[in-house]
Amino acid sequence: MLRLSSYASSIPRLSPQRQGSMIRHVASTAALVIALCGSTPLMAQSGTFLGYTTTVPHAWVSATPSSSMRLAEYRVPANAGATPVEVVVYFFGPGQGGDPAANIDRWERQFSNPDGSPVHAKVTTDKTGAFPITYSEFRGTYARGTGAGSSADAARPNHLLLAAIIETPKGSLFVQCYGPIAAAEAQRAAFEAFVKGLK
């Protein structure tokens, strides 16, 4: 059996210069990691809407809302040249924004299949959380617009829209996650956790 003393003596000893070099390398690597990740890379983000709070996924980067009807906007960074996934939280006022059926019908009309035929929404409801939630999703060419219209000239093929209507006592929140199908699909679990986590 190898004695510990023999084993220890078999380990090469580093010169002071080599030790110093290794310490500097480790320190510079740690500094680079902190610089790339930020000073608090694993800190959970939180989002508060109408006085209710939920956890925001780490990968979502907050952006300045582009209108007063948007309580929050987030981007999921994409590779250079790729379209990022976007997440938007809307609030139109107490009792405003329409019921789930009207919104689902409007979103459905913003989508089409490659052959021009209509897209049919996949709709589910969830009443197990703090508030009733209606989920809907749409796949195809997305002519995203506002109001009752759509932007046919800016139609985006192969897109996925995940939408949730959260019915709170203070009014309905409308949350949308949309982008290229594969990228938006990868955010499904995070989106659902964000929506259902509101309380």
Please tag this protein with its features:
eight-stranded antiparallel β-sheet; about 200 residues; alpha+beta; 10 strands; Protein Transport Mog1p, Chain A; 5 helices; two-stranded antiparallel sheet; single chain; disordered N terminus
Q: Mind explaining what this structure looks like?
A:
With 199 residues, this protein is α+β, with helices and mostly antiparallel strands. It has 2 domains: 34 residues; 152 residues, Protein Transport Mog1p, Chain A, CATH 3.40.1000. Strands 3, 4, 5, 6, 7, 8, 9 and 10 form an 8-stranded antiparallel β-sheet that branches. Strands 1-2 form a two-stranded antiparallel sheet. The longest helix has 22 residues. The N and C termini lie far apart (62 Å).
Residue windows where pLDDT falls under 50 for at least 5 positions: 1-11, 25-42, 146-150
Shape category: globular
Class from helix and strand fractions: alpha+beta
Order of helices and strands: HHEEEEEHEEEEEHH
The total of helices stands at 5
Radius of gyration over alpha carbons? 25 Å
